[in-house]
Write a structure and sequence with these properties.
Helices cover 40% and strands 21% of the residues. The protein is of the alpha/beta class. β11 and β12 form a beta hairpin. α1 packs across α12 and α5 crosses α6. It starts with a strand and ends with a helix. The chain binds adenosine-5'-diphosphate and magnesium ion (MG).
């Protein structure tokens, strides 16, 4: 039997300062993840000591991580970098945390993502007019856009503008984002405003289908699709109205994934991530990527798919549906899912070190 892999977690809550020996307080712990680690105990176990680790996993919730915490993590990692495997090294944090940087890397390598511009701000009034002109021009081109911060979730700092937005509306969104950025920049210096094309060509009957694929060490480990008619939506927004489309999309997904796999893996690898959930729409049979989330842990990982009614439907009809959409049920079997994830980490580390 292979030697057990020792894993060390480092984040805001463990692995730094006085918390460096702490085994508990796994950052952004997913439901049943700790049990999953325990279930994999014949293959992998946690260590309190970074120097004993075979693999180190940087666990930070990006949007809550400030420059000081990054610095503390970096300080500990720089002594072991190159000697040990590191999952999602803090050195590549900006690649996924800042959407403008992720988009820039993807574009440079021919990977599709929405068009975007970043905004450089200063306090000059003329500058404000200039920015508004820049936004209006972008808006004329794409008809619908987001004005947003580059490093926050959609519930914060994301404004939708359309060709019917007035100049005042554009200005108010801009001014509020400039304020937001100023507040954040002292702690998260990479914060910026960006303008993003609203991707909608792929909409069918007004439905947008958003795909999420989980990748570990260059391999796809799970995936699902969600769907909605809203402009901005997440898994929790799905209702029973969407159930048939949700089932149909997930039933077709295995075939699509094999076609899209090379681009998905390339998009993740380009950002330097070993583990993450990547999100994309599909346009003309090609993925158009919108974000990489290194620490998935949202509604699907905590409760399941859709609102309460949809969740009950999926659970009541498991017998009939499991054969059609096995990806959905295996993702929701959290404990075995995480056991498998940790076993795969072990498998990879024992092969490549
Ligand atoms: N460029 C885009 N075009 C169309 N819809 C988008 C675009 N970017 C984001 N969205 C919508 O907004 C939602 C949230 O955006 P996202 O960047 O994934 O932030 P987060 O998931 O962190 O809240 C997405 O699930 C999608 O519905
Ligand atoms: Mg998202």
């Amino acid at each position: 039997m292979n030697k057990k892999t020792k894993i060390y977690f480092i984040g805001r809550k463990q692995g730094i300062g006085l918390r460096r020996y702490r085994l508990s307080h796994l950052e952004n712990r997913r439901r049943f993840e700790p049990e999953g680690i325990k279930d994999a105990k014949t293959k992998i176990k946690q260590t309190r000591f970074i120097q004993n680790a075979d693999v180190i996993w940087v666990r930070v919730r990006p949007e809550h991580t400030n420059d000081k915490q990054r610095y503390l993590i970096e300080k500990r990692l720089k002594n072991v970098r190159g000697k040990k495997s590191i999952i999602n090294d803090i050195s590549i944090f900006d690649n996924y945390d800042c959407k403008d940087i992720a988009f820039g890397i993807w574009k440079e390598h021919g990977i599709l993502c929405p068009d975007y511009l970043t905004i450089e701000q200063d306090d000059d009034k003329n500058n404000l007019d200039q920015i508004i002109r820049k936004i209006s021009k972008f808006l004329r081109k794409y008809k619908k856009i987001f004005l947003r911060t580059n490093n926050e979730t959609a519930s914060l700092g994301m404004h939708t503008l359309t060709t019917s937005s007035t100049k005042d509306e554009i200005k108010n969104s801009l001014v509020s984002l400039i304020d937001r950025c100023k507040k954040h920049q002292s702690e998260r210096s990479s914060t910026k405003i960006m303008i993003v094309e609203f991707s909608q060509q792929h909409r069918e009957n007004q439905y947008a289908d958003l795909y999420r694929v989980h990748v570990l060490f260059g391999k796809i480990i799970s995936y699902y699709a969600i769907t909605s008619r809203k402009d901005i939506f997440h898994n929790i927004d799905m209702t029973l109205k969407e159930i048939d489309r949700f089932i149909m999309l997930n039933e077709q997904l295995p075939n699509k994934i094999s076609m899209l796999e090379p681009e998905i893996l390339k998009a993740v690898a380009l950002l330097g991530c070993n583990l993450g959930a990547i999100e994309f729409f599909i346009e003309n049979n090609k993925p158009v990527f919108i974000e990489l989330n290194p620490m998935w842990g949202g509604h699907a990982s905590m409760n399941g798919f859709g609102d309460d009614y949809m969740q009950s439907y999926l659970s009541d009809n498991r017998g009939a549906l499991e054969k059609r959409i096995p990806n959905i049920y295996s993702f929701m079997d959290y404990r075995p899912y995480y056991k498998k994830l940790y076993e795969l980490i072990h498998q990879h580390i024992s092969l490549v070190g």
